[in-house]
Structures are given as C-alpha cells and as structure tokens.
Design brief:
single chain; 136 residues; mainly beta; Elongation Factor Tu (Ef-tu), domain 3; 8-stranded antiparallel beta sheet; two-stranded antiparallel sheet
Length: 136
C-alpha cells in the first residue's frame, strides 16, 4: 500500500493525539520558512535583517468531512469544532514518510469555515486556519 501524508494535531506536549485531518484537498504547508526578520524604515533605504528570527504565519487546510448520513456528518462537524479549540496550544505534525515528520507549533485563532455551497447529506467542505509559531 502506498504511503499517504497525514496531518495530525497533538496536545501541547506533542505526544497526545487530538485530531487527524482526513481528506485534505489543499493546504499551504510551508516547504521552506526562512529564519530571519527584516525591519525597514520609511525614511531610509535598506533594511536591518535579524537572522534566526521567526514571524507567525497562517497555515490553512481545505478538506472534506465524509459520513454515511446527515447525523454522522453533523457529529463530525461538531467534533472538529469542539476538538480543535480556539486559543489552545497545539503541535501540528505532517507525516511526510514512514520515518520523516515536520512539526510546527500552532494555535487556532479564527473560526472554522463551512462551505455554504457544499451542504450535503453525507459530505461537507471545510477550511481551518491555524497560526503557526503562535507560541514558544
């Protein structure tokens, strides 16, 4: 069986699994996050670059929740909302292979968006946005 990358949210300790995102359609998972912060001034040219400085950024997931019936679908929607709680520290992990994992500290700051054009009986599109590097 072929390996499928998975996105999982763990508790702040990075050990206790909280939620696994199923059927992710698209994401803006960073392939590269340069480690520097640049300060510019409106009265001069150039910038001051601070190496190894990290700024928070947003990571989103567009996905589909699938269920056998409407009751099960609403249970999945509420489970996503109630499990990935706003303003709570999480560790987001991407299993890139059987032995390789990317890890980012995240926090949900905004509501989970349910696509109003895909309200169906057995599937529902959603978007969740997490702020990366929101806590140290």
């Amino acid at each position: 069986m072929a390996f499928v990358p998975t996105f999982k949210i763990y508790a702040e300790n990075g050990v206790d699994l909280i939620y696994q995102f199923e059927h992710v359609i698209s994401t803006n998972w960073p392939l590269d996050n340069p480690s520097s912060i640049s300060y510019t001034n409106t009265r001069s040219t150039g910038a001051i670059n601070i190496p190894e400085g990290d700024k928070p950024y947003d990571i989103f997931f567009d996905g589909i929740l699938l269920a056998d019936n409407y009751t099960d679908l609403t249970t999945l929607i509420f489970a996503l909302r109630d499990t990935v709680v706003a303003n709570t520290r999480y560790v987001l992990k991407l299993d890139k292979s059987n032995s390789t994992v990317d890890t980012i500290k995240v926090m949900r700051k905004v509501k989970i968006t349910i696509d109003p054009n895909s309200r169906k009986i057995n599937n529902q599109r959603y978007t969740i946005t997490l702020q990366a590097l929101a806590w140290a």
